[in-house]
């Protein structure tokens, strides 16, 4: 990503021939990086959370709170976006979708596949979190 942007700066300011496609490719790579990091962040508890009340709860109450809020809001959001991004990726591949950047055709379908994979991984990690909370409530053990 940085290499594409560096190459663009060199070509634009030192050679006088900007490469219009490099910014778009770097943006796609940043987007792919962001989408694939979501499930990792959820696994490691790195998502933003309002901790004012949450930190004061016991482990059992945290698990109950997470089950009530996370399983409804997260699942609704993630199932919906997983469904629509998979359909968008399938359509994008079927038409071999690409961008019309001046002087080049940059394929967009790989990014749409990565977005669908990212939401699928996030959904699976969310289901695993819900399962861990249920196991904790039943057995009292952290998995």
Task: Please give a structural write-up.
This protein is mainly alpha-helical and 143 residues long. It has one domain. Helix content is 76%, strand content 6%. The protein is built from five helices and two strands; from the N terminus they run ααααββα. It has helices at residues 2-15, 20-43, 51-54, 59-94, 109-139; strands spanning 98-101, 104-107. It has a two-stranded antiparallel sheet. β1 and β2 form a beta hairpin. The model has no long low-confidence stretch (mean pLDDT 88).
Number of domains: 1
Major β-sheet strand ordering: 1-2
Main beta-sheet annotation: 2 strands, antiparallel
Estimated radius of gyration: 21 Å
Distinct helical segment count: 5
Terminal Cα span: 37 Å
Proportion of residues in β-strands: 5-15%
Which spans have pLDDT < 50 for at least 5 consecutive residues? none
Short summary:
Helices cover 76% and strands 6% of the residues. The chain has five helices and two strands; from the N terminus they run ααααββα. Strand 1 and strand 2 form a beta hairpin.
Helix and strand arrangement:
Elements: H1 2-15, H2 20-43, H3 51-54, H4 59-94, E1 98-101, E2 104-107, H5 109-139
Antiparallel strand pairs: 1-2
Helix pairs in contact: 1-2, 2-5, 4-5
Relevant terms:
about 140 residues; two-stranded antiparallel sheet; 5 helices; mainly alpha
């Amino acid at each position: 990503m940085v290499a594409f942007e560096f190459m663009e700066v060199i070509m634009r300011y030192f050679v006088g021939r900007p490469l219009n496609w490099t910014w778009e490719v770097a943006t796609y790579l940043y987007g792919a990086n962001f989408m694939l990091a979501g499930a990792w962040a959820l696994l490691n508890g790195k998502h933003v959370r309002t901790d004012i009340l949450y930190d004061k709860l016991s482990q059992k109450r945290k698990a109950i709170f997470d089950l009530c809020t996370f399983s409804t809001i997260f699942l609704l959001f993630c199932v919906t976006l997983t469904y629509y991004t998979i359909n968008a990726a399938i359509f994008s591949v079927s038409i071999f979708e690409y961008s019309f950047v001046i002087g080049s055709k940059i394929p967009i379908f790989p990014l749409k596949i990565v977005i669908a994979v990212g939401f699928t991984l996030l959904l699976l990690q969310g289901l695993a979190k819900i399962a861990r909370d249920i196991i904790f409530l039943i057995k009292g053990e952290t998995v």
